[in-house]
Amino acid sequence: MGDLESDFNLKVVLVSFKQCLNEKEEVLLDHYLAGWRGLVRFLNSLGAIFSFISKDLVTKVRILECLRSSPQREHYLSLQSMVAYEVGHQLVDLQRRSRHPDSGCRTVLRLHRALRWLQLFLEGLRTSPEDASTAALCTDSYNASLAAYHPWVIRRAVSMAFCTLPTRKAFLEAMNVGSPEQAVEMLGEALPFIEHVYSISQKLYAEHALLDLP
What we know:
By secondary structure, the protein is mostly helical. Helix content is 62%, strand content 0%. The chain has helices spanning 10-18, 29-45, 51-68, 79-88, 104-127, 134-143, 152-162, 168-173, 180-207. It is globular and about 50 Å long.
């Protein structure tokens, strides 16, 4: 799946999420996964702090890549076609994990939840003052998104890890698009696309009662 250890560049993520939607506003999985590869590189560039999250994200991306290269790959061109195929053929565990623990619907849902956290965190970085606490920004974003799906032990460990985050300036420099000011400008361009993809995915999953898959 490409080199997830290579340098992160925010522009690559921007391009991927810009290309994520077709004229019917269907979420194209190849571009969605390309965007996630970039976001994983971003997390990896920050060191071991986010390894507990990035490792899980890599696993999820690889599951979807396997589906995209499987004999059923035509059903996994878009998020919409995937949901229609898996729901229509009862390939999703709706009540408890059993026969289909790695269904595309369940796998994307985990990425979808993480995307919300990253979207909120990056928006916080974009709009916050220079001396803002990244620990507070990340904690607030986590509490508003992923925390609801994690047990207390993980939430506690995550909160402690966030206390060691680098400064806002270091985060912005890690985006590799120039100065912190240039990174803020590109975040302003990228985040609306990420948010739009998230909103369309959220609506699709809500319509099919898939937001609480086990």
